[in-house]
Specification:
Helix content is 5%, strand content 66%. The chain is built from one helix and six strands. The protein has one helix spanning 7-10, and strands spanning 14-18, 21-25, 27-33, 37-42, 45-59, 63-76. Strand 4 (37-42) and strand 5 form a beta hairpin.
C-alpha cells in the first residue's frame, strides 16, 4: 500500500515556512487581508497571519504562498 501523509485525506492544513515565504495547503478560501494581517479559511477553522509587508505571491486551487515579514501565526476554531 501507499504511505501517503494523512493531510492528503483529511484535508488538514499543511503549513510550511521557508525564510520569508509561507506555503499553506488545504485551504477553502481567502478571508480578509492587508499588508499586516491575512485570514485564510480552512476546513476546520481559520489561520491568521500577522506581520508586515504581507502579500500573496501565488495562489492556486490547493495552495497559497504568502511572503513578507511574519510576526505571528495562529489558528481560530471553526463552528
Amino acid at each position: 500500500m501507499f504511505d501517503l501523509p494523512k493531510d492528503v485525506f483529511n484535508k488538514s492544513p499543511r503549513i510550511e515556512l521557508i525564510d520569508n515565504l509561507l506555503q499553506i495547503n488545504n485551504y477553502i478560501s481567502l478571508g480578509n487581508f492587508d499588508e499586516e494581517e491575512l485570514r485564510i479559511n480552512l476546513y476546520k477553522g481559520k489561520v491568521v497571519i500577522k506581520g508586515s509587508n504581507l502579500r500573496i505571491k501565488y495562489i492556486y486551487k490547493d495552495a497559497i504562498f504568502v511572503e513578507g515579514t511574519f510576526a505571528a501565526l495562529y489558528f481560530e476554531k471553526g463552528d
